[in-house]
Structure formats: C-alpha cells, structure tokens
Design a protein that fits this description.
The protein is an alpha+beta fold and about 575 residues long. Helix content is about 50%, strand content about 10%.
Length: about 575
C-alpha cells in the first residue's frame, strides 16, 4: 500500500458503495437502514452480518468480522490489501495511476503473460475458422456447448508445425522465451509448435492468468499420446495450481462447497451441467499449496476422484491430509464409469447431481474403506478394523462424531463402550493446523473504564468535533494501546482534514500493533448513536474513574508517609480531587 497515496485510496473508497460491492459477492437483504447477509467468514447458517450503507462498514454479530469495503474484498478473495484496492477500483470503473499499481500480474513475467494471452486468442480464433470445423464438431459430439467452449477458452493449434511460432516471432518475441514457457519445442536444433494438431485448453493460476496449456488429439491417431501438457516453467508449476480455481472460488463460497476432481475434462463436464463450484487436481496427489488454496475458501471439500484403485487411494490420502488441516471433507464415489466425465455421459446430469447432493462424510467413507479385504467374522480382522477406526477417530475434534462412532462399534460388535473410550483416549491425536475453523473465543467482560475509553475512540473516528472534544476535555490515555490509537486518529485527521470510520480502517490496516483493537472497537460500537451528549457522558465517566483511582493512590501514599507536613499536603490534594469529582 505504500506506493498508493492515502488520497487516492480514500477517493476509491468514497466512490465505492459497500452495499453494491458486497452484494456482487453474496445476496443482501435490506432490514431497515442496514442490510443483512450470511457471513462468509465463518460457518454461518442464518444471516449474522450487517452492512451499513450510511457508515460504509460491515459487522458480523457472530464471529466479529468487521471492516470496510477493502477489508471485505481482501478477506473474501484471500488477496493482499493492495490487490483488493485495485479490484474495488475496477468495480467502480476507476483506474489507479500507472505509477502506483500495475495489476496482479507480476511485472517480472509481464511479457510472458502477454505471450500466453496472444497465444490463447490465436488458438480460440483458429477454432472458428474453416480449419477448426472438424475440431469444433468433435467438441459438440462430446456434448460441450458453445458457452462452455467460450467459458473455458477452448481453442485449436493448427496442423502447421510453426503457425504459432511464426505469429509470435513476427510480434518480436524471442524464441528462447517461447521455449522457456513451453509454447514451442526444440528437437535437434529445429523449433516447432508444441501443441500442433490438438485442441487446446488454457491452464490458469489462482488469479486467472494463463500459465500454460493442455492439448488433446481429436482425430484417430495411432502411437500418439492423447494429452500433452505444458512442462513446468517459471510460469507454470502444476502443484501450485488447481484447474478452474479462479472461476470456481466465488461459486464455491455461494454453495459453501468445492468439488475436487482429477482431470480438467471432468471439471469442464461438471461445469457444463451447471455445477460451477468445481476444480481439478490434474493428477491424484494433492500438494500443500493446493490444500492451502482450498482451505482459504472456508467451505467444505467434496472429493470426487476417479473410480479406480488409484482414485480410491488418492481419496484416502488426500482426505486424510485435508482433515489434518481442519478442512471439512466429504466424498463421492461414482460407480460404473471411470470418471465424472464418463459417468455424466452414461448416466445423465440428474444422476450426478444426486451424488453431489448426498455425499458421504470422509469418516464414513474411511470406515467403509477400512473394511475392504477383511473378514469381520474373523477375530484378527475385526480387531484390526476396530483399531484402525479408533486411530482415525483420534484425529477428529468432533465430539458428536466420536460418541456416535463409539456407540455404533459397541452395538454392532458387542464391545464394551468403556473399553472403546479408554482405548480411544489412549491414542495420540493427530496434530491439526486449525485456524479459520477455530471456535470463536468468548469475549471477556470489560469494566466501565475500558468501555468508556473505547467509546471515546470510536466517536473520535466519526468526525472533527469529537476529536476536538477529546483534546479539550481529556487529551490523554494512560494505557499505551489506547493512547496510540488516539494519536493515530488525531494524526489521520490532521493529514486529511477529515475522518470517517471507513477511511480510518483503511489507514490502520497495515498497523498490526493496533489493527486488531481498532477492529474490535468498531465492531462493538458500530451501531451506537454518535452524539456530542453521549461523548461528553463517556468523557465524564472516564474522568470520574481516573479521579477515583488517583484518590485511591494518594490515600495509600498517605498511609505510608511518615512526614506530617507531607501527609497534610496529600490530604489537600485528595480534597481538591473530591471537589472535582462532585
């Protein structure tokens, strides 16, 4: 944020209506002068977030999330604050000055991204020419609509071995750079297009920048690989991306779920039937980076991997990793066909939708999996199965799940419930990386003095008159955190000649030492009626407590003082303070 002036940021914030911006992400319902919505920052089932158009602030009454339009976009999209500013500006039809912000495409790879975008347009255009008729017919026979072809940027690399290379060379792009990012190949010194004679599918990073391509044959060709993918490069790192993530993330938040499949054709097929909250691993093993992307969505993950042994093992392994990271995980296991693409073509849309609507929990899936290749009539197999279930159960923090499972095991296999509980309690739980799903901490009760100081600070964020009143009648907080916030409020006003709560939130977003406390103060006071009468009442209350504490301190000092003259002087100070306190 350092490269963008406060004036520019405040101008963007002033132009952005928080109701319109938040409403572009999640549905809002008007209630009086405010708007309500389901909070996207915790597992919310009834509207608990309030959005104030008047104050340009949102507040969740349940989890405590608070902020302005920039903090909402930053938190919702899991992007840095500076990118949120740019996104809000874009939504408002404003542009940041060139010297301040250059979009979320890294300037280090600016030319590489330009090359990828130009290549993508070339491939898409090819599909709409006479040379693309055969490929387009193939896609239609596969049941892919024109809308899906457009949505996923599907194109065609021509039969020519150097059509793309010729185009890019004419644009003065260096062949070495084309080779580095995997658009051309070099065999014995001869350069040629990487994806010739194939239908192309762009691969994106999490922000929607094209970083590579996957390409598929569409004719019957022998001894030719069906798929060809971009090799890893400085742009494309397979383990750091999820296919279609940039498109699916908003749908996932609306549906509160993200479906994970193996292949990108599975993701396209599922999206083709109207289910847009789907991403593809482009493989079977899930990486830490991919888990991090999924966890940031704060939604349940539904694993729908291929119906083969590799897909089964991947469901087990990936599910366990997701659970370790405190991601709510569900499983769909399709029967009859190899993957979701083939399943939908064979069984129809409704059959797949029904599976999506009734997934099993990962633990339920795991219990069924642990029964495989075991004869539960055999004592040793049964013992192994029960121990495996208890080991898996030890990783869960869900007390209800633990209780229900233990009761079921006890009933189904005529085992002592106490014995099962003792066995489970003796197992070491798997360490979790709990963060966003941590239970909300109960608020500690604040005394009147603390409440008074925080109310005064909130009022000061609302205008010059409240700052002047603080300076005139109080002017100082002994507590460091409140003194620092007051100083920052005064500084912000003096620099900008105006102040609003929404703008002050923008100002302190990088000041980690006070940010949390400011957000807490705003959250607890945002619905207060801000009047000078109330301000004066809080100032009087705080001064009364300050005076009372000072009298108490002086009395203790008086008791320990041996000098009679000094005792009398302290007594006089106490009398004067009591007069002020009347």
């Amino acid at each position: 944020m350092a490269l963008i002036s406060n004036e520019e940021i405040n101008a963007i914030r002033a132009s952005a209506n928080i109701v319109s911006i938040i409403g572009s992400y999640i549905p809002l319902t008007q209630r009086g002068k405010n708007y309500l919505c389901v909070c996207p920052f915790h597992d919310d089932h009834s509207p608990s977030m309030s959005v104030s158009e008047e104050k340009q602030i949102y507040k969740c009454f349940s989890c405590g999330a608070t902020g302005n339009v920039f903090t909402f976009v930053s938190e919702y999209e899991n992007i840095p604050f500076i990118e949120a500013v740019a996104k809000v500006a874009e939504k408002c039809g404003m542009k940041l000055s060139d010297s301040t912000y250059k979009s979320n495409v890294s300037q280090t790879f600016k030319e590489e991204h330009e090359i990828m975008e130009l290549s993508q347009k070339f491939f898409q255009n090819n599909l709409r020419t006479n040379a693309g008729v055969e490929a387009l017919n193939y896609l239609k026979k596969r049941g892919l609509t024109d809308e899906i072809v457009k949505e996923f940027g599907i194109g065609l690399s021509l039969d020519s071995n150097d059509a793309l290379m010729t185009l890019l060379t004419k644009k003065s792009y260096d062949n070495k750079k084309l080779l580095d990012i995997g658009l051309i190949n070099n065999v014995s010194g001869k350069m040629y297009d990487m994806f010739s004679r194939r239908i192309t599918f762009p691969l994106w990073d999490k922000d929607g920048n094209i970083v590579g391509f996957s390409a598929r044959i569409y004719r019957d060709e022998k001894n030719v690989s069906k798929y060809m993918n971009s090799r890893e490069s400085k742009l494309f790192k397979k383990g750091e991306t999820l296919y279609n993530y940039h498109n699916a993330k908003d749908y996932a938040k609306r549906e509160k779920a993200i479906i994970v499949v193996e292949g990108f054709m599975d993701a396209i097929r599922i999206s083709n039937i109207g289910i847009k909250n789907v991403v593809a691993l482009q493989g079977t093993a899930m990486t830490e980076q991919q888990i991090s992307l999924l966890k940031k969505l704060r939604v349940k993950v539904i694993l729908c991997l291929d119906n083969d042994n590799a897909g089964l093992l991947a469901t087990v392994n990936n599910g366990e990793e997701l659970v370790k990271h405190d991601v709510e995980t569900f499983v769909i296991r399709l029967s009859g066909q190899k993957d979701p693409d083939e399943y939908i073509l064979a069984n129809g849309n409704e059959a797949f939708v029904k599976n999506v609507e009734t997934p099993m929990t990962f633990f339920e899936f795991k219990m069924n999996y642990l029964k495989q290749n075991k004869n539960l009539e055999n004592v040793e197999d049964l013992s192994t199965y029960i121990n495996d279930v208890l080991k898996s159960l030890s990783a869960s923090n869900d007390e209800i799940l633990r209780e229900l499972t233990l009761n079921k095991l006890s009933k189904d296999y005529d085992l002592s419930l106490d014995m099962l509980k003792n066995k489970l309690n003796g197992l070491s739980p798997v360490e979790s990386t709990r963060s966003v799903s941590e239970p909300i901490k109960e608020k500690t009760k604040k005394d009147g003095y603390t409440i008074g100081m925080e109310k005064i600070l909130y009022f000061m964020m609302n205008g010059e008159q409240y700052i002047k009143e603080y300076q005139c009648k109080l002017g100082f907080f002994a507590e460091p955190i409140y003194r620092e916030i007051a100083n920052e409020i005064v500084y912000f006003y003096e620099e900008n000649k105006a102040i609003t709560v929404a703008d002050f939130i923008t100002y302190i977003v990088t000041k980690n030492e006070i940010k949390g406390k400011v957000m807490e103060i705003v959250n607890e006071s945002v619905n207060d009626d801000v009047t000078m009468e109330a301000m004066d009442d809080y100032i009087k209350a705080v001064m009364k407590i300050i005076t009372k504490n000072e009298i108490k301190r002086l009395k203790n000092l008086q008791k320990s003082e041996l000098d009679i003259y000094k005792k009398m002087k302290i007594a006089e100070q106490i009398r004067e303070l009591k007069k002020e306190d009347v």
